[in-house]
TrEMBL record:
Protein name from the UniProt record: Acyl-coenzyme A thioesterase THEM4
Topology of the protein relative to the lipid bilayer: Peripheral membrane protein
CDD domains: PaaI_thioesterase
Broadest EC class assigned to this enzyme: hydrolase
Keyword Magnesium: no
Protein family: Belongs to the THEM4/THEM5 thioesterase family.
Entry GO CC: cytoplasm; membrane
Gene Ontology biological process terms from the UniProt entry: fatty acid metabolic process
Molecular-function annotations in GO: hydrolase activity
Reactions catalysed, as given in the entry: decanoyl-CoA + H2O = decanoate + CoA + H(+); octanoyl-CoA + H2O = octanoate + CoA + H(+); (5Z,8Z,11Z,14Z)-eicosatetraenoyl-CoA + H2O = (5Z,8Z,11Z,14Z)-eicosatetraenoate + CoA + H(+); dodecanoyl-CoA + H2O = dodecanoate + CoA + H(+)
Amino acid sequence: MKKGFQDHYPDHTAHCFGCGRLNEAGHQIKSNWDGDESVARITPDPEYTALPGYVYGGLLASLLDCHGTGTAAAAAYRAEGREMDTGEPSLRFMTASLQVDYLKPTPLGIELEIRGKVKEVKGRKIIIEEWILANGEITVRGEVIAVQVPDKVILDLLERAGK
């Protein structure tokens, strides 16, 4: 399986429930480039039921969140002409804003496709527009405003938390 953007995160930033490769209980989504768009795929487990046969909206929001920050990181590396696993500093993004529009119920029990496109790059801020498809039909649209967080800030947060 091809490594996803999230597989390149340094260990100290790889614990996210949605995309952290070191979180065994998490979803561990993997996003990759598909031309100018990013794509990830996941088949939600039955416990993510909202109503029988449909996916819980909180899961859909978290998928947009993690796919968006991963896409932002990949876009930043791309803008610098670097591969994601090359050199320091590592470029890590966190969500500053997440907007989600639920267009129609998303069916459970099928593979979902999460897609994103870079809308704007402005300094440390990257805006990603996204959508989730079920059976080729868009069921959710969203936008993530992701902000680059220096490694030192993340390490300071971890130290304060005693990690």
